Amino acid sequence: MNFPKELKYSKTHEWIRYEGDAAFIGISDYAQHALGDLVFVNLPEPGDELVMGEALGDVESVKAVSDIFSPVSGTVLEINEELLDSPEKINEEPYEAWFVKVGDITETEELLDADAYEALAEEEEANA
Predict the structure, then answer these.
(1) Which of 12, 41, 73, 109 is deepest in the core (most CB within 10 A)?
(2) Distance of CA 10 to the CA centre of its chain
(3) Mean pLDDT over residues 39-48, rounded?
(4) Res. 26: pLDDT tops 90
(5) CA dihedral defined by 29, 34, 37, 39, rounded to 10 degrees?
């Protein structure tokens, strides 16, 4: 599995990439692999307020529906509309297939670096 070093990760398997005052959020390679083939994604609207630790949307796979949790509090600046028509892109390129771009960030959860997240993922897989 792939754990890009430049990203930060949440314990609920979302990644975050900061660009200036904004951040992009998606799900990790580990998460998309665990979920299986994704067939639907539900995203918030631009202008919606996100609250750290609360669901920002969900994904549906052939296995189940899973919430996507926001690792930050802030305002949705943009959504990745391409995912609405092509959710399989999350499986193909999880670190390119961002869900939302967030600004006005006021709160961030304690994020993990790539090494700590890789250790978490390995531990969860061993206990699965």
Answers:
(1) 41
(2) 8
(3) 98
(4) yes
(5) -90
Distance CA 107, CA 125 (A): 29
* Residue 8, burial from CB neighbour count under 10 angstroms (0-12, 13-18, 19+): buried
- Residue 8: phi, psi to the nearest 5? -110, 155
Give me the domains of the chain, ranges plus CATH numbers.
Answer: 8-116 (2.40.50.100)
Predicted pLDDT of residue 63: 82
DSSP 42: E
Is the four-CA dihedral 48, 51, 52, 56 of positive or negative sign? Answer: negative
Cβ(90)–Cβ(26) below 8 Å: yes
Q: What is the pLDDT of residue 1?
A: 87
> Is residue 60 pLDDT above 90, yes or no?
yes
Distance CA 124, CA 128 (A): 6
Look up the pTM and report it.
Answer: 0.95
